[in-house]
Write a structure and sequence with these properties.
Layout: E1 12-18, H1 24-33, E2 40-47, H2 55-70, E3 74-78, H3 83-94, E4 98-102, H4 115-125, E5 130-134, H5 139-147, H6 154-171, H7 175-178, H8 180-194, H9 200-218, H10 230-278, H11 283-298, E6 301-306, E7 319-320, H12 327-337, E8 346-347, E9 352-361, E10 364-374, H13 381-446, H14 448-452, H15 454-486, E11 494-496, H16 498-508, E12 517-521, E13 529-531, H17 533-549, E14 556-563, E15 567-574, H18 581-584, H19 605-615, E16 619-624, E17 630-637
Parallel strand pairs: 1-2, 1-4, 2-3, 4-5, 12-14
Antiparallel strand pairs: 6-7, 6-10, 8-9, 9-10, 11-13, 14-15, 15-17, 16-17
Helix pairs in contact: 2-13, 6-8, 6-9, 8-9, 8-10, 9-10, 10-11, 10-13, 11-13, 13-15, 15-19, 16-17, 17-19
Length: 640
């Protein structure tokens, strides 16, 4: 063991490196035991088998990947040919300070060395980390056998024998005509051709059979293995060496080509999966894209259970195909989530089998995914390796969306708290003034001397009426806003003349407008619009009240209307102080009040007006007039 003494256990991050070696379960147990309790995060880098790896190696890697997913660590699937560079990038990216490697040979090493050489290369590139080597028994012998096994089928051997016999049958009658040297070349060509379609074992068998048949049937003396000419002996063995070497090299090139095609296919598949997940913008969207990609590439479907927001178990809420959900499956998924069960293929029904995998992220377990396939038609070993690697990407995507949802919830909570405080302050302030006036007026009316004076009594009653109207307006605004927010606002649309609408508004605002110079310019040619008279009147009243409140007495207010081919526009303009440019964009926001404006109002009037106008499929806009003051325009579609 090589240990860097400067590393503290606090914030410890450990990474274990595995490939297609047997006994990885024991290795991962030892790696987990080396974690500092409660202070460590750990990762598992799974190095995919390289070129030349056979079916046994890939099957072992598939089993190891399953064990890694069950370990509770964050699993990273490496496809890189440069293992040292890839591991160094992970060490830098995730802040790894301890690396655990067994004494077996990794699945692929570009420099063809042992685990010891890999450790030295990593230590050279990353001198600051501690590298721990866990000793295991007889692992190197096991992996060598798995890695270099010949996987030629019996049919290939029979085809090789048949090809050699057929070639011999054709060449034997022509031996005197073409010469035995030419026959040797023909056998050599046959070996090269068969190496393009057969495995290495069949090619070696072909070379050996050619060696014996050429010697026995063609090289003089015939029908004996004795050779008189030393040159023929050298040519015979040279032919055998070339056949075996050339055939093996061609077979290796075929395997390398197949591996390259597989790697290219895997990279294309991985890119497609990652691109799909990166474009997701919610948990349901992630699951929907996962199901789409599973169906597209693996002929599979999925069901996902996520962790409870404030618990240590799964939430009984289904994402994905709800047809796979029942109490028994949910209980088993909970067992897999708690790492109490090894995920095995389970028969859901006669047509469907399902296998669950824990979704373990850097921040902890996220949930469980069940991947369903048609019974008897599971995913191939090569694709199953990639499928399990895809599980890691799914985990990252879900972790991202869960984090975003939490951030949104916190933001909504903060905004709601802020809004609640704003509403409370605004409403309490607005209530305090009229209530104080009413209280004072009642006290004065109870005073006999004050009540006996007709002028005082008239003034007090006028103050009472004004305060009652102010309270009524406040209550109406709050009720209107609640109707709009709740979606209960309904419109009774009827054709209405603009001059009638403005006349009703002016009559309602007669007392409020008595201190202002108000002009109305609505031509008779303005067409009717389809509106709810009461709600549109309320919208214009709110705009006019805003103009009256924030413009000085004696200032002018103009209400005008104009029309074009598609719409009718009502304009309300004043010659008051206007609105600062930075406040124009917020003028219709709920509870917004222009900084420095005089007290009065809850900041709901213009918000309600905007909502009511937009409910009529109209638009409202506010802008400062060049000569001073504010212009508010309402655009409504013409009645068809």
């Amino acid at each position: 063991m090589k240990q860097n003494r400067n590393i503290s256990p606090d914030g410890d991050r450990l990474m274990a490196v595995i490939g297609c070696e047997p006994s990885v379960d024991h290795f991962l147990q030892k790696a987990a035991q080396s974690l500092h309790p409660g202070k460590s995060e750990w990762f598992i880098a799974c190095i995919e088998p390289g070129m030349g790896a056979g079916h046994i190696s890939r099957k072992q890697f598939n089993e190891n990947l399953t064990l890694a997913l069950l370990s509770g660590a964050r699993v990273i699937h490496l496809l890189d040919s440069d293992i040292v560079g890839a591991l160094s990038n992970l060490i830098s990216k995730y802040g790894i300070n301890r690396l655990v490697i067994g004494n077996f040979k990794p699945a692929k090493l570009p420099f063809g060395g042992s685990a010891g050489l890999l450790i030295r290369q990593l230590q050279k590139c990353n001198p600051e980390i501690a590298i721990i080597r866990i000793n295991m028994k007889n692992e190197s012998e096991k992996i060598d056998t798995a890695r270099f096994s010949v996987s030629t089928g019996i049919k290939e051997y029979l085809l090789a024998v048949a090809a050699v016999v057929a070639t011999t049958a054709v060449c034997f009658p022509l031996r005197d005509m073409i010469g035995y040297q030419t026959v040797g070349l023909i056998f050599l060509i046959l070996t090269a051709i068969l190496s393009l379609i057969l495995g290495r074992g069949a090619v070696i068998l072909t070379a050996i059979m050619n060696f014996g048949i050429w010697n026995f049937f063609f090289i003089p003396p015939l029908f004996t293995f004795h050779i008189d000419n030393i040159h023929d002996i050298i040519m015979l063995f040279a032919n055998l060496a070339v056949a075996i070497t050339g055939g093996s090299l061609i077979t290796r090139l075929r395997r390398n080509q197949a591996d390259l095609e597989l790697s290219r296919s895997n990279i294309t598949l991985l890119y497609s999966l990652l691109e799909s997940l990166n474009n997701a913008n919610s948990i349901r969207d992630v699951v929907a894209k996962v199901r789409s990609e599973l169906e597209r590439h693996f002929n599979a479907d999925a069901i996902v259970y996520l962790r409870e927001k404030n618990g240590d178990s799964l939430e009984n809420k289904v994402f994905g195909n709800s047809e796979y959900h029942n109490n028994e499956e949910f209980e088993y998924a909970c067992s897999v989530f708690a790492l109490k069960e090894k995920p095995v293929v389970r028969m859901l029904n006669e047509r469907t089998s399902i296998q669950y995998f824990p979704l373990s992220a850097q921040s902890g377990p996220v949930g469980v995914i069940g991947i369903a396939t048609e019974t008897g038609k599971g995913v191939s070993d090569d694709k199953l390796i990639f499928l399990k690697s895809f599980v890691t990407q799914i985990t990252s995507a879900l972790e991202r969306e869960i984090s975003i949802d939490k951030a949104k919830e916190n933001q909504v909570y903060q905004e709601s708290q802020k809004l609640f405080q704003t509403v409370l302050n605004s409403v309490s302030h607005e209530l305090r003034t009229p209530v104080s006036v009413i209280s004072s007026a009642v006290s004065n009316l109870l005073d006999e001397k004050t009540a006996a004076d007709p002028e005082n009594r008239k003034t007090i009653c006028a103050d009472l009426e004004t305060s009652a109207r102010r309270l009524n307006q406040l209550i109406e605004n709050i009720l209107d806003m609640s109707k709009i927010d709740s979606g209960y606002l309904s419109l009774d649309l009827k054709p209405c003349d603009i001059s009638d609408l403005v006349g009703v508004v002016m009559n309602h605002m007669k007392e409020d407008l008595q201190d202002h110079v108000t002009r109305v310019n609505v031509p008779d040619t303005i067409p009717a619009v389809s509106i709810d008279m009461n709600w549109m009147k309320q919208a214009i009243l709110n705009i006019l009240r805003n103009a009256v409140t924030y413009t000085p007495a004696g200032s002018g207010i103009l209400i005008s209307a104009k029309a074009d081919n598609l719409s009718v526009t009502i304009e309300i303009e004043d010659n008051g102080p206007g609105v600062p440019g930075s406040s124009l964009v917020h003028l219709f926001d709920k509870f917004y009040r222009v900084p420095g404006s005089k007290s009065g109002g809850t900041g709901l009037g213009l918000t309600i007006a905007k909502a009511l106008i937009e409910a009529h499929n109209g638009k409202i806009n506010a802008e400062n007039r060049p000569q001073g003051g504010l212009l508010v325009s309402i655009t409504l579609p013409k009645t068809v």
